């Protein structure tokens, strides 16, 4: 009788038992866990109120329905119904970082300014006018404030919008979608928690789908060749503020108050197409100079910091003074109360 060799076929039951033993002998593998995302707090509805004296506010777009993510419409005014306490926050200055990298960063951004600055963005637009642009941005400004986004995000939104308008004709019924798409692209560059697509679509009353917004986002990025790091008014305001404090021309508290007031003036100018032809560094230094005059500082900022011709500086300053005179009520609503008191602005002005 021949004994079975070790290589002979085993029965099915034996193979199953051997397979179980092999699985038990394998080294344990740790399963990868997907990161758990924290749910952010829901947005609070905007307080809608009409502010007299604001020339750039109109209910051009419909307000979101009551069943959307945001209950009320943000199309009230450029101030968005915010109280005087909810204006530009006073940030802290990082002088050491400015000493190390300030001048090199400024020289780099100043050299890029002309490349990212569209001077006549509405020349190729048969349906989009300066008035419709003003109304869209007057709607986007309180939306940006409702999401508590930075001023840098707002500046990048306007830059992305204008640069795309300079390259591609846009239909009037797609203009609002272009606005929220530009806001989304800007927030992805700057904000830690950008708004969700669902929230942005809710602001448009469900007029557009997620696919339409994503498709337009791809078109904008393609038309701009993914070149998005534009120098902004926000950057130049911070640089000029650091420069004057480092030179000992003004106290830190006074410089921060002037920066906050200049940011409010610059926010008004973003919606006005008359200021689209001015470079961001020119607008920044002029807004800061006007803020110094309104706060009556003893040593105002040196206009030569911006390296612009005297004629351009005086022209921009004159238009900014007229803009502030027309929109003094709206400006008072977006500034801290103590700054309004120092520059004789009151929310009750008419």
UniProtKB/TrEMBL annotation:
The keyword Zinc does not apply. SMART domains: CYCLIN (SM00385), Cyclin_C (SM01332). Signal peptide: none annotated. Residues 1-45 are annotated as: Disordered. It comes from the Eukaryota. Residues 1-11 have a biased composition (Polar residues). It is found in: Cytoplasm. Its main location: cytoplasm. GO terms for biological process: cell division; cilium assembly; mitotic cell cycle; multi-ciliated epithelial cell differentiation; seminiferous tubule development; single fertilization; spermatogenesis. SUPFAM superfamilies: Cyclin-like (SSF47954). The keyword Nucleotide-binding does not apply. InterPro entries: Cyclin, Cyclin-like_dom, Cyclin-like_sf, Cyclin_C-dom, Cyclin_N. Keywords: Cell cycle, Cell division, Cilium biogenesis/degradation, Cyclin, Cytoplasm. Residues 28-41 have a biased composition (Basic residues). GO terms for cellular component: centriolar satellite; cytoplasm; nucleolus. Residues 138-222, 250-325 form the Cyclin-like domain. Residues 231-349 form the Cyclin C-terminal domain. It holds the Pfam family Cyclin_C. Belongs to the cyclin family. This is Cyclin-O. The gene is CCNO.
């Amino acid at each position: 009788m021949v004994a079975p060799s070790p290589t002979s076929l085993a029965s099915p039951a034996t193979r199953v038992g051997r397979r179980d033993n092999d699985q038990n002998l394998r080294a344990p593998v740790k399963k990868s866990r997907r990161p758990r995302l924290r749910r952010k707090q829901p947005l609070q509805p905007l307080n809608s109120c009409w502010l007299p004296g604001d020339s750039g506010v109109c209910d051009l777009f419909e307000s979101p329905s009551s069943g959307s993510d945001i209950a009320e419409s943000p199309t009230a005014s450029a101030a968005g119904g915010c109280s005087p306490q909810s204006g530009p926050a006073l940030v802290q200055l990082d002088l050491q970082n400015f000493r190390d990298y300030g001048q090199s960063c400024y020289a780099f951004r100043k050299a890029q300014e002309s490349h990212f600055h569209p001077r006549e963005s509405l020349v190729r637009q048969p349906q989009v006018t300066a008035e419709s642009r003003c109304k869209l941005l007057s709607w986007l400004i309180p939306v940006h404030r409702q999401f508590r986004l930075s001023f840098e995000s707002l500046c990048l939104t306007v830059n992305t919008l204008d640069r795309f308008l300079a390259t591609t004709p846009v239909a009037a019924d797609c203009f609002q979608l272009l606005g929220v798409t530009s806001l989304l692209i800007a927030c992805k560059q700057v904000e830690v928690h950008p708004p969700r697509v669902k929230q942005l679509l809710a602001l448009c009353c469900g007029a557009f789908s997620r696919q339409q917004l994503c498709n337009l986002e791809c078109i904008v990025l393609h038309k701009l060749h993914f070149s998005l790091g534009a120098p902004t008014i926000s950057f130049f305001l911070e640089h000029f503020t650091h420069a004057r404090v480092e030179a000992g021309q003004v106290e830190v508290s006074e410089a921060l108050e002037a920066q906050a007031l200049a940011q409010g003036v610059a926010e008004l100018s973003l919606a006005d197409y008359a200021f689209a032809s001015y470079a961001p560094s020119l607008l920044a230094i002029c807004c800061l100079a006007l803020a110094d005059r309104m706060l009556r500082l003893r040593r105002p900022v040196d206009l030569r910091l911006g390296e612009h011709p005297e004629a351009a500086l005086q022209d921009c300053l004159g238009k900014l003074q007229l803009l502030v005179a027309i929109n003094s009520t709206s400006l008072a609503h977006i500034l801290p109360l103590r700054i309004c008191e120092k520059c004789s602005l009151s929310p009750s002005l008419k």
